[in-house]
Amino acid sequence: MIEFRQVTKRYDSDHTALRQVNFHMGRGELAFLTGHSGAGKSTLLKLVMVMERPSAGEVIVGGQVLNSLPRRQIPYIRRHVGVVFQNHQLLFDRTVFDNIAMPLEVMGTSPRDVGRRVRAALDKVGLLKKEKMNPLQLSGGEQQRVGIARAVVNKPPLLLADEPTGNLDPELSADIMNLFAQFSQVGVTVLIASHDLALINEMDRRTLTLDHGNLIAGGTPLQGGARGR
Amino acid sequence: MAADSSSRTRKPDPARGAKVAQSPWREQAESYFIHHRKVARDSAGRLWRTPVASLMTWTVMGVALALPVALLLLLTSLQGVSAGWESSARVTAYMSLGTSLEQARDLAGEIKADGRVIALELIDRDQALIEFRASSGLDEALDYLEENPLPHTLLVTPEENARSAEGVAALVTFIEGMDGVERVQVDLGWLQRLNAMTDLLARAVWALATLLAAAVVLVIGNTVRLSIENRRDEILVAKLVGGTDGFVRRPFLYTGAWFGLGGGVVAWVLLQFSLFWLSGPVERLAELYRSDFALNGLSLDGAFALIIVAMLLGWLGAWVAVKRHLDDIEPGEIAGG
Ligand SMILES: Nc1ncnc2c1ncn2[C@@H]1O[C@H](COP(=O)(O)OP(=O)(O)OP(=O)(O)O)[C@@H](O)[C@H]1O
Ligand SMILES: [Mg+2]
Predict the structure, then answer these.
(1) pLDDT, tens digit (0-9, with 9 covering 90-100), for B274-288
(2) Which one of A76, A149, A196, B118 is least enclosed by Cβ atoms within 10 Å?
(3) Residue B128 sits in a domain of what CATH number?
């Protein structure tokens, strides 16, 4: 589902955020991405989202090489990638329902299907009763779950999360991680960037570790991993 | 690798690509139109919810549009006047002094027989002298003259179709070529001056219209730029979840068109109001000059065209803003450090 081949990312200020990173993730695999602050975690996720382009090497997502992707094709890649950020980027000028419907709206889904799919996503994150509320009226954890519902509402085959549990209490964090695990069970590839080592250890999954832009662990899947699937 | 990637470009992920293709194009088209309608309504609603700001933009636009249109209307009114006066265009033919009254009558009959002539008046020289004496007050001076210095004169009124500049010119050549005709005069000089003036005025009006149209585009562009900045978050999220450039631009283009619509309506109202306000005095003035001059209002078609043009200008302004400011907004910045 995701493959990095000798990927190097250098920002303008000749600062190298990623150095010759190699890894591969299969369908339905869940992995963590960890490392110190500034190690390059967000950079790696941005490369998958085509928010940044690699300086060298190849990023392949869903079988497609992203390096040479023309600009106007980018939206179509993003429709297949759900993203969750720490600052969940909900829009406060519309209801929870309308926030979650956005990925469907950009795809031109018919209104009938929108209602059905948004409610399915809300159900999955346990917020079915709050669809008409404004995100401002929700707690931090609930807002984060709305963000997740938005990321999965169009059933993307790939889900990326950058610090999804950043400022949540441990119990809520565990809830959200379980949610991610459920998605991976139905075949969604999930990659989660996180500092939260305790939680990562508890989950006991493949962990990619970055250090100053070098991938120092987790480059190959755990034994019996999803490679080749 | 390049060939490889381009062959896959259309379907980033075969499995999901197939799924999208399953929904029939009719349904896709339907939801596309539903979306257009929603965005159109939405962006109209936004303008409506900030009535003061919107009204100000509409007014600025309305004034900028009304001014050149008013001048254009004035111009067509003036052209109407010159067309009206053209109908009184008269050709005066002076016979040579040696021509007898008989000969003059024959000549008059011949000219009158021409299809291009609708009316003809012969003023015989004796009669002309009497009239001249009476009206000029040069009675005594004329007594010193041994003979009548005035020739027989023909006043020729061309027929309707022959009243164009070329038509009159042709008629003049025809009459000039006849025996016994000394000189032909057309009373068109002042008409040509008026025409030249309206031509000049027309150019000035078009130049002004172009400048003001550019101003309208810039005003709308700036207004839309502000609205882009206000909705930055929404744009970021839309791009993040895979909104195409077209999708993200759409609301702003509609906003521009709605600004145009409002501006066009304001311009129309201003024009109608000015017309109403001016029509009384203009009528009185025209009466004093015994002219059938009247200020032209905007016809229904004209009003429609004005509004369409205004909407196009608004759309264009929005497009400029969108091109300059919206395409720069990339969701990279919200991903965090
Ligand atoms: N747009 C940018 N321009 C220049 N340098 C950047 C840019 N984005 C990131 N960097 C640099 O790249 C390095 C990696 O950044 P990145 O955001 O990937 O780190 P991170 O692992 O996500 O850190 P954190 O855990 O703090 O979020 C950092 O040193 C950062 O300063
Ligand atoms: Mg980060």
Answers:
(1) 988 888 888 887 777
(2) B118
(3) 3.30.70.3040
